[in-house]
Amino acid sequence: MKEDLNLQQLLNSAGIKRRFSELLDNSSASFISSILTIVRSNSRLQECSPNSILSAAGIAAALKLPINPSLGFAYIVPYKGQAQFQLGWRGYVQLAMRTNQYKTLHSGAVFEGQIKEIDFITGEIVRGEKISDKIVGYVAYMEFLNGFNKTLYMTVEELEAHAEKYSQSYSYDLNRGKKSSVWSSNFDAMAKKTVLKLLLNKFGIISIDQQSLDLVKALQADQAVITDEGLRYIDNERGEEKIVPFDDFIKPSDFEAEDNFVEEEKNQDNENAQ
């Protein structure tokens, strides 16, 4: 990726336009426009490297998921000058349903009194009656077409502990009384996503057949910065940096501007400077 070009210049490159067109056909122009809109509305994203933004957007494009934050399917999230791809809970539902294996898939908040008890053997929930508007936890439920079903419940305290363990930005917020992380600013959406993601990881259909492949890739790429060496989970790193190999998917080099375009842009900048 040519770091001396800004995001607008890169998106104007014929090579990058062609790559998005290969992924999205006639929807590529509106998707590219949405990238610019999102970045322009987020000052922290404007500080991120253009290649990390394009790589994160490329993952969403390959999965055929919109990146408009209000829709909740996929996000481009800034962290330490790099853009992460992040899947929303609606994105997980969308990808799972595309496998044609699920009858029902859902996650949501649980209010005080709504869960009476949980069977410690089967994991099944005995429902109670809501007694207040206090949210005490979040639940995810899946049911396959073959009848198999599973539920996962986590209390608010368990989810907070999970967030503190796996998100440096949330841990930073807790220590400094800030709200800079997604967990801090939108706990409800992250909690719904987390219980659903954990349920899919534990009991979902995770295979290499074509129908399930997008869901497998999304589970891997979620909350990662995409590099040519693999996936880097910078918000989860504690101590040594770890790169997880990720073959046969989007890489930053897939979104490089063509050399002749780079030279033309440099020449144009020189002319404008004179």
What does this structure look like?
The protein has 274 residues and is of the alpha+beta class. It has two domains: 1-89 and 209-274, no CATH class; 102-204, no CATH class. The protein has twelve helices and ten strands. It has a three-stranded antiparallel sheet with strand order 3-6-7. It has a three-stranded antiparallel sheet with strand order 8-9-10. Helix 2 (14-24) crosses helix 3, helix 6 runs antiparallel to helix 11 and helix 7 packs across helix 8.
What is the radius of gyration? 21 Å
Mean pLDDT: 83
Shape: globular
Query: What fraction of residues sit in β-strands?
Result: 15-25%
Number of domains: 2
Structural class: alpha+beta
Unreliable stretches (pLDDT < 50, length at least 5) are none
In terms of topology, how is this protein built?
Layout: H1 7-11, H2 14-24, H3 28-40, H4 43-46, H5 50-62, E1 74-79, E2 82-87, H6 89-98, E3 102-111, E4 115-118, E5 125-127, E6 135-144, E7 149-155, H7 156-166, H8 168-176, H9 182-185, H10 187-203, H11 210-221, E8 225-227, E9 230-232, E10 243-244, H12 259-273
Keywords:
10 strands, three-stranded antiparallel sheet, 12 helices, 2 domains, globular, single chain, alpha+beta, 274 residues, 45% helix
Summarize the structure.
The protein has 274 residues and is an alpha+beta fold.
